[in-house]
Every structure is written in C-alpha cells, then in structure tokens.
Amino acid sequence: MLITIGTVMFYVPFKGNGGNNKDSPVILTSSKFSLTNVNEASIEELEKLPGIGPSKARVIVEYRKKHGAFEQMQDLLKIPGIGKATLQRFSNMITGFSSSNRKESNVKLIDLNNATIEEIETLPSIGPVKAKAIVDYRTLHGPFLNFKALLKVKGIGPKTMEKIKSLVKITKD
User: Fold this and answer.
1) How buried is 90 (Cβ within 10 angstroms: 0-12 exposed, 13-18 middle, 19+ buried)?
2) Which residues, including other chains, have CB under 8 Å from residue 85's CB and lie 6 or more apart?
3) Would the pLDDT of 148 be above 50?
4) With pLDDT > 70 as the criterion, what percentage of the chain qualifies?
5) Global confidence as pTM
6) Are the CB atoms for 82 and 73 separated by under 8 Å?
7) Nearest C-alpha neighbor of 117 from the set 102, 129, 106
8) What kind of architecture, by CATH, is found in domain 36-103?
9) Can you name the residues that pair with 110 across neighbouring β-strands?
10) What class, spelled out in words, does domain 110-169 have in CATH?
11) Across the chain, what does the average pLDDT equal?
C-alpha cells in the first residue's frame, strides 16, 4: 500500500504468508523530508510547498523583504492568494517563526541597519571586533537586505547567526 501525504510517501508492506498476515506492518519513510524556513527560503524552495507556485513564492519573498520576518504562521494569510485552506496544506512543512510573540516581549530588537557598534556588541557571540566588522560592512556595502547577507561579514558564520537571529531585525528605509 502506498500512502502520499504532501510530498512525503509512506510504503506500508505487511509481513506474512502470501500477504495474508496483516498483523505486523513495516513503515518506510522518505529521509529527504525537511522543513522550509519561511523567513529564509528562496523562491525556488517556497514553490515546492503544496499550493505555492512560482508567483505565490515570489509574492512571499517580496512581502518578507518589504515587511520583515513572519513572526507567526497567521502572518502568511496577509499574502494575496494564501487563504486558510492553502495555509493548512503546508503548515506542517514550514518553520522559522519567532518562538515568542515579540509584541508581548520586553526584548528590544537591535536593528542591524541602524545600530551602533556598542548596541551590536550586546548580542551573544558578538564582541567589539565583530560589531565593528558589521558596521564597516554596512557602511561599505549599504544596508543589509536580509539576514542571509550578514553571513558576508567576516567572523559571522551560521552558528553566530543562529544565536542572534531572534534578537535582531533588519529595517528597510
């Protein structure tokens, strides 16, 4: 028996004599399944989600660039063409939302496009050298357009990025 759920397929054979003994099912699953981070995914990655083609994926990325990261899954309902039914189809395949509601939090997010070296230094794993490198990169190349651009700064890698991403924001003036 072959069962398809979204893009994951399960093959459920039954052990036994001639297939008559159905007491011991064996379930094999695809190991290629992974979650899509809606705040970092490319158009190509987003269009693989059920109900999201190239045009909706493009609108999601444009909305994210204009308004910033999606803080909760319901924020995706603001995208034209994504209703509750479409969201339901891929809701278990996406991740990347804030773990806490920032509007209710007292944590002040540091804006990487406007923060001083001293403000950036308050972030975990960021000392004066890395903070200066962030400001120098911003001065030389212009404002950060997304979080991924921060990886171009010398000394900032994926581990540092993971530690600070919930504490920073990127505004577009």
Assistant:
1) buried
2) none
3) yes
4) 74
5) 0.43
6) no
7) 129
8) Orthogonal Bundle (1.10)
9) 168
10) mainly alpha
11) 79
